[in-house]
Amino acid sequence: MTTLFGTDGVRGRANEHVTAELALSLARAAASLLVPTGGRVIIGRDTRLSGPMLEGAMAAGFASAGVDVLLAGIIPTPAISFLIKDERANLGAVISASHNEPADNGIKFFDRNGMKLTVEQEHAIEDVLVNLPPRAPRVGSIAPLPAAATRYAAFLTGTIESEDIDLSGLKIIVDCAYGATGAIAPHVLRHFNAHVVEMHTAPDGERINQECGSTHLEVLRKTVLSQHADLGIAFDGDGDRVLLISPSGDTLDGDRMMGIAALHMKLKGTLDPKIVVATVMSNMGLEYALAEAGVEMLRTPVGDRHVAQTMLAHKAQIGGEQSGHIIFSDHSPTGDGMLTAIKLLEISHERGRPLHRLAEEIPLYPQARKDIAVAEPGKLMTHPQVLSAIEKAEKRLGTEGRLVVRPSGTQPMIRILAEAADETLCNRVCAQITAAIEGAK
């Protein structure tokens, strides 16, 4: 059968690829492998219109497998990771397509430790889908999970260790992308007395991620500049990633955020071991800045699941992706946009410097990026014309640059990243690879 799971769960067009039938079958398959009869599963979702349909189907699938289901409703993805442990549940499921457009949806699972499933576990679920086990004699219950959002918000505020933190006088613009963070993020920031201006906080599944949030920063940037704000915070639709906008309109990406956190912890003597885990997409400038401070950077394939598993193996405290999935493993085993935002504000408070000034400690190399829509990304990656162009580009970049060309694990496209000290060279290499892929389509 065709592989269903990508780098972040199952994802595709709702009611076409991600159907109610698939959701029900995935629930039955996952339950047969990961949940004992009489066990418990928590389901959360973002604001998409297809969410309730898929939620109902998944709940039915789990219940038919003899599993009790707790519905957390609209809630950020990382909240499910927290709630699994808080409720001592056996499994968590999130219905979301993260940063994708409103017509898409997806399904991802978290194990009893709050971590995303391994590739091997996902393959096992796909294998079971071919021949689903019989329905259980026992029918599981389906009920709402009381105060899910309130409990998650309390967890977030409890991660702050500075007793005297007070964000009074700090004007923060918060863009929630019409997604799952809208009812929680402003509340959490106001808990620390910040002056919060809300953007796109309504739970609107028809506009989720549309010209807003962490993948469309233009409106937030303009608002930060026009309102003379101290910081802009942008989440994606399900709240597992975050990007920041400085008072001058510059973007603070995941690399800068990881660098700020790691250098601060190194300064305090709390970074143990002295390791940061990032992906192949992270900037060489971050690697050099960390090395200068005596911190090693380990690289993984793209996907915060790979980051989380490598962090677990090396007992690392900080890891993440350039896109804004950041993991603070002392508090959570998965990427959490809101947790990242408040921990960085805590660091800013402790250092007595705004985040954009701390970001200057991590000078980044120029990067050129391009996403190219293609019908069959994997097949096109083996085309002789594309392979030849990649080989020539890598020789041109030499040891002072990097090239990453890969099929997306969440969308039908090929992603290109060229990096070097010479910005002109970056742009030329990226353009050459783009031309080769377009010519081979």
Can you walk through the features of this model?
This protein has 441 residues and is an alpha/beta fold. It folds into four domains: 143 residues, 3-Layer(aba) Sandwich (Alpha-D-Glucose-1,6-Bisphosphate, Chain A, domain 3); 84 residues, 3-Layer(aba) Sandwich (Alpha-D-Glucose-1,6-Bisphosphate, Chain A, domain 3), CATH 3.40.120.10; 93 residues, Alpha-D-Glucose-1,6-Bisphosphate, Chain A, domain 3, CATH 3.40.120.10; 74 residues, Alpha-D-phosphohexomutase, C-terminal domain (TATA-Binding Protein), CATH 3.30.310.50. The protein contains 15 helices and 19 strands. A seven-stranded mixed sheet has the order 1-2-6-5-3-4-7, with helices on both faces. A five-stranded mixed sheet has the order 9-8-10-11-12, with helices on both faces. It has a four-stranded mixed sheet with strand order 14-13-15-16, with helices on both faces. Helix 1 runs parallel beside helix 2 and helix 1 packs across helix 4. It starts with a strand and ends with a helix. 51% of the residues are buried.
Q: Determine the N-to-C terminus distance.
A: 25 Å
The helicity comes to 25-40%
CATH class descriptor of the largest domain: Alpha Beta
Largest sheet: 7 strands, mixed
* Rg, Cα atoms, Å: 22 Å
* CATH homology-level superfamily of the largest domain: Alpha-D-Glucose-1,6-Bisphosphate, subunit A, domain 3
Q: Low-confidence segments, ≥5 residues, pLDDT <50?
A: none
Strands of the largest sheet, in order across it?
Answer: 1-2-6-5-3-4-7
Give the overall form. Answer: globular
Number of strands: 19
Which secondary-structure class do the elements indicate? alpha/beta
Q: Into how many domains do the coordinates divide?
A: 4
Helical stretch tally: 15
CATH architecture of the largest domain: 3-Layer(aba) Sandwich
Per the CATH scheme, the topology name of the largest domain is Alpha-D-Glucose-1,6-Bisphosphate, Chain A, domain 3
Q: What amount of the residues lies in strands?
A: 15-25%
Average pLDDT, to the nearest integer?
A: 95
